[in-house]
């Protein structure tokens, strides 16, 4: 009993000597129940520990005032232990791990979590409200010294909240989150920390202005997202940045002569310089126009900068992805380097193209022929991609001489149609894959087996037997496989007009095996007959329930092209860039639309001053990054 | 370097004589053109040697020609440096003494990284098929070609080809 009492006495003495150890008034749970004690005691111990460490730290810091470098080191240690730094870490963790992970998870199970449309305005509005409150308050009270009224801790929390809401919303609606380049959360927290340290001493007054600019830009982003008009981003950020620059310049003017205060403004030099370069260039251009002006604007086109100015909008990324600082920097660089609009185009990035699932195989670089016609929608992409799988695996490499097979094939078709060879039923699929049905009556039905085979697969009827598969297998391996596949690209027409009688004739004269084959063909022939015109594959697809057709096609295509794909494992992976063969292709060149490069190779080619497409030698005007989810990887 | 490694793999599957991969016209074509194409030592993929067959219907038919290929470190951004075996190739676009080839795609301006060693071999083979006397490295042969003296052309080439120590004659 004595021991306990003496321990208690010592504790009391200790508490009086070092008041920071007494944290007993801090409680997490009120009352004196067992649960409250169980929770409060460790909490109080932790608080005491923290207070002790903090005090030791401050003692240590004050003892080394004479050593500035050591002092600075302790300062940075203090920052990393401060509330702001921990907030940074937490936000970064939430954005990087939880949100992204959640979005990926949601992408896999889209039905489980559907983002309600009203989340968007609600969350943005909350951010807008707190941001504008934050911004207006200091402005109203004292315009000259807004930093006095900054609630320092709150600022970083507001910023973090704004970042979080924005990234959640953008990612869940499959858009890139907008980011302002003025200050990251980390920088902002650092500013806050410095401001807090300096307290009333206003050496770094521009920091407060910086914070306000950053907040203004966040407000801008939220407002734009709220009204869904991203394209005005550049305009808005230009206004805020220029205002900020104006105030900064004004302060520089106020502080003239005071070198220590002026030195804090060096960080604004690049931005100031960009604006100067742009203004000077514009002025020169206008001056040149005025000098050249002689009643008409014809001569202006001779100016060297004309084409650049003419294409100014296309050079700048005005989609709202980038804000003033980035765009001004780019523009200034372009003006200084003196790129006219005709060259250096491997460096000119156009707005990004987002291909949602797997890239359409029409994007593939196939010799000289295969270029992007349009960005197809999600549904079509998947089905065509799968349908073309066999085709892809052979044509991915830039087969520079590969095209003549296609022409050979087209020639064969043409010759064949011209000659109208024989007039009897001979529908055994021969090994060359060019089997024909020819009917007694002259010039009535001629079918390229290859055309029809495609329709087999798309045929919505039940394909219970394995005929198609076998047929495809032989076809894939024969010498004409190239040509039979290349027609995917060409949407060839089936130019048959079939009379009803002939249809029946055909069916009746077939033996059993042929009948089997006929049942597959029948709906198509019927369709020809019903429409009475030349029916194309797309028409057929449109008029029949296309989903069913697509579904069947996918099944057939995936099962039948297996032998081919297993042959060339190299070629499947050949969404790889044609130059390095390592990275996946993710750059489309304009205007030739060749999809053959990865971004690394584009950069290394641009550095070496390549101006032409690596595949087709067309002049390159620019490129676009494509996001491709590689299903194989 | 990994690009060369991948090309090597691809070449091996395409050109292997007993491969089952000959389901493809292109593979067949490459097999008809190239006898072999491999790095001189497997530890160094920058130096290669190749042998291509003379195209039918030309004086080069039934002859085979050796090529030395050197890939610069910047390959495939820059073209490989390709030479015929010196003193073995009478052709109006080939320097007979050194074996240097005058072919636009082997120059930096006209090369594109989308080409690879096999397609380059094919381009050289096509050059054998269709000589371009307008940009000659062997002026004598080019002059004969320009005046379109077929018999002189064939005779001269046959003389050269039978005299030179072509690998096919030693076979």
UniProtKB/TrEMBL annotation, chain A:
Keywords: Membrane, Transmembrane, Transmembrane helix. One of its GO terms (biological process) is ubiquitin-dependent protein catabolic process. The keyword Oxidoreductase does not apply. GO terms for molecular function: ubiquitin protein ligase activity. It comes from the Eukaryota. Gene3D superfamilies: Zinc/RING finger domain, C3HC4 (zinc finger). The chain crosses the membrane at residues 84-105, 117-136, 272-291. This is RING-type domain-containing protein. The gene is NCAS0F01870.
From TrEMBL, chain B:
Pathway: Protein modification. GO terms for biological process: protein autoubiquitination; protein import into peroxisome matrix, receptor recycling; protein monoubiquitination. GO terms for cellular component: peroxisome. The active site is at 102 (glycyl thioester intermediate). Pfam families: UQ_con. Keywords: ATP-binding, Nucleotide-binding, Transferase, Ubl conjugation pathway. Belongs to the ubiquitin-conjugating enzyme family. This is UBC core domain-containing protein.
